[in-house]
Amino acid sequence: MSILLDTSARVVVQGITGRQGTFHAQRMAEAGTNVVAGVTPGRAGAAVDGLPGVPVFNTMAEAVSDTGANAACIFVPPPFAADAILEDIAAGLELIVCITEGIPTIDMLRVMPMLQASSSRLIGPNCPGIAVPGANVKVGIMPWEIHAPGRVGVVSRSGTLTYEVVQHLTDSGLGQSAAVGIGGDPIIGTRFTDVLELFEQDDETDGIVLLGEIGGGDEEQAARFVRERVTKPVSAFIAGKTAPPERRMGHAGAIVSGSEGTAAGKEAALREAGVRVGDTPREAVELLAAQLR
Amino acid sequence: MKVHESDARQIFADRGLPVPPSRVATTPNEAAAAAAEFGGLVVVKALVLAGGRGKAGGVKLADGAEAARDAAQQILGLDIRGEGVRRVLVAPAVDIDREIYLGVTIDRERQSAVVMASAAGGIDIEEVAAATPEAIQRIEFDVARGVEAWQARAVGFALGLGGRQVLSFIRILDGLVRVFMECDASLAEVNPLVVSPDGTLWAIDAKLNIDDNALGRRPELEQLRDADAEEPAEARARDAGISYIKLDGDIGCMVNGAGLAMATMDVVKHYGGEPANFLDVGGGAGADRVSAAFAIILDDPNVRAVFVNIFGGITRADEVARGVLAARESMPRAVPLVVRLMGTNEAEGLRLLADAGIQAERSMDAAARLAVEAVQ
Q: Which of B233, B237, B296, B215 shows the shortest CA–CA distance to B2?
């Protein structure tokens, strides 16, 4: 099996009666994902367009007890999305993928201690989700048709940049073991290092592409992790080399992270850890391909 | 969103921080009147959102009304990192024995809210943090519980404060944590927190940044936005749900997703071009938002070609194609258009474009090269 997701996933779509929720529930089902239910408070019993067998519940607890669901995909609007995550943690879901963009950071800070005390795994928020082409399963919003089964793991802070690299991997014949968008927000459930560790352990992954961007210190942390713990080849692309210097957050930003979060600093840290860094997303794929052949 | 010091001082004072009184002046005469009201030594500070104003000559001490008038004369109209000074803040100066740094923010690495404090406050705090990180006291805290009194006390003593001062410090820290929580701040900072020779603590500066994601539930803070300090096109973009930052090049970029938008700029530059802007049209953008993005890009007179780079996930390629076609109808001026369109509903999007005579590219690299050629 690959990482995070396999054919045993029984997925509930939260916010399934909304425009995005319905559309992407359909796309997930088409890809082969076992979408077992939807949750929209106050809409229990509603029919979902194009998904006749999928029941809608008011609460996640009911969805879990009626369908044996073990995963959630959240399309709930930002003011209510952190609450949806807490509901999923309380319902004991193994995997929670939160697509929602724009959740207030303090709401996520409230979620973190609950998440850490639970056995749930949160991907996101503000992420495209997870795709595992070899198992015909995706939980998220990524276009399915660009994927192909393969042995390269993709981990990314950016949604659309993930698609870009997935497409290059498919075009070059390498395919993907799994593609994981961890999300672009400051507070996220699963980080580069978590996913790097999973790919390192995974028998179906031979190499890894890491996609970072300016800001924060996650790429530097990933570089340290690669140097100490990852034996498989890793290539990377860091977006934002030409971006204007980050609009400063006052003194505290630099004091907290101990780094300016520049593309140059991140690239240097990754290179020192033995990661091949491309100037473009395509080059990052080519550098990995050269190491795998 | 950054909040002006004058508003931040009020918000801090409302939560019990010892902030000296102050007045906002838009003319040298108003500054003189404020100085006369306070009497004695005052500080005159540029009210700008940009950092580094002290080093840019935007903060001056003045003894009496005439000196305050002169100081305001010099500061008003300064350009501090691209921001014109239209107002100054006048406040009584406080005698300084020591300067402490105190801030509450988010630690991404530890995924937690954090209080930071240092006995070495003032404008060189970043250098202190880089050279001697152990000189920074930290309290990571659960936002559901706040900071416990014993934690605040321990930091107070570590800063070298005496018994009575530690009690004031605990109240100040408690107030600053309340600011952070009640304002959905990404940063609430007092630098410096001054210890005066008589031992009193004063918050003589107030910095407050609000989490943009939380402004929807903080309308009272949204009202504090200074629209005049923003690039007009950037404000217009924000109102349309678009992230836009103007740059100096000539290739206008319209992209979905911040990461791909930055990568698009990088790739344009890689092939010898200069991006005119960063633009993330946002997830799930419909035809209307795409049209609005076009209008914003083309308002920049430097733009000589537009590069549309869309890889749809939650955004649907057919919606984008409709937006591109609508925008092309109403383009205020004709510039070469390079479209790269892939992802969700790609086939329908490509068909719409092809019917209108637009041959979309499949590769970002190839499209970037075409955009660069178009302006050469």
A: B215
> CA-based Rg of chain B, rounded to a whole angstrom?
25
The contacts of residue A55 (CB under 8 Å, 6+ apart) are: A37, A38, A45, A63, A66, A67
pLDDT in tens, B208-237: 999 999 999 999 999 999 888 777 888 889
Q: What are residue B162's phi and psi, to 5 degrees?
A: -85, 175
Q: Please report where in the chains the tokens 């713990």 appear, as a residue.
A: A229
Report how many Cβ contacts below 8 Å link chain A to chain B.
197
Residue B336: the pLDDT is 93
pLDDT band at A247 (very low <50, low <70, confident <90, very high): very low
Residue B209 amino acid letter: N
Distance from CA of B184 to the nearest CA of A (A): 7
> Which residues, in sequence order, are CB contacts of A72 under 8 Å at separation 6+?
A11, A12, A13, A14, A60, A84, A88, A93, A95, A96, A97
Q: What is the pLDDT of residue B287?
A: 85
The verdict on whether B189 is a catalytic residue reads yes
Nearest to A155 by CA among A135, A134, A127: A127
Residue located via tokens 């609508």: B326
Site of tokens 């300067």: B99
Mean pLDDT lowest among A241-250, B245-254, B330-339, B363-372:
A241-250
Predicted local distance difference test score (pLDDT) of residue A224? 97
pLDDT in tens, A80-98: 999 999 999 999 999 999 9
What whole-number distance in Å separates Cα of residue A57 and Cα of residue A42? 8
Which site among B260, B281, B316, B365 would you substitute to test the A interface, given the most A Cβ atoms closer than 10 Å to its Cβ? B260
Does B105 sit within 8 Å of A160, measured CB to CB?
A: no
CA–CA distances in Å: residue B351 to residues A126, B329, B347, B348: 30, 18, 6, 5
Distances (CA, A) of B154 to B139, B157, B166, B181, B203: 10, 5, 9, 22, 20
Q: How many angstroms separate the CA atoms of A289 and A15, rounded?
A: 39
Active site residue B134: no
Tens digit of pLDDT for each residue in B54-88?
A: 889 999 999 999 999 999 999 999 998 888 999 99
- Most distant pair of Cα atoms in chain B: their distance: 79
Give the closest of B186, B259, B270 to A213, CB-based.
B259
Q: Evaluate if pTM is beyond 0.90.
A: yes
Which residues, numbered 33 to 92 in chain A, qualify as contacts with chain B under a Cβ-Cβ cut-off of 8 Å? 78-79
| Residue A173 near residue A160, CB atoms below 8 Å | no
Range scoring the smallest mean pLDDT among A213-222, B29-38, B249-258: A213-222
CB atoms < 10 A from the CB of A197, how many?
Answer: 15
- pLDDT band, residue B371 (cuts 50/70/90): very high
Alpha helices for chain A (secondary structure H) = 19-31, 60-67, 78-90, 105-116, 159-171, 192-201, 218-229, 251-257, 263-272, 281-292
d(CA B287, CA B297): 15
Q: Which pLDDT score, from 0 to 100, does residue A258 have?
A: 56
**Within 10 A of B155 (CB to CB), how many other CB atoms are there?**
23
The arithmetic mean of pLDDT across residues B14-41, rounded, is 97
Chain A: residue whose CA lies nearest to B110: A187
How far apart, in whole angstroms, are the C-alpha atoms of residue B49 and residue A181?
A: 34
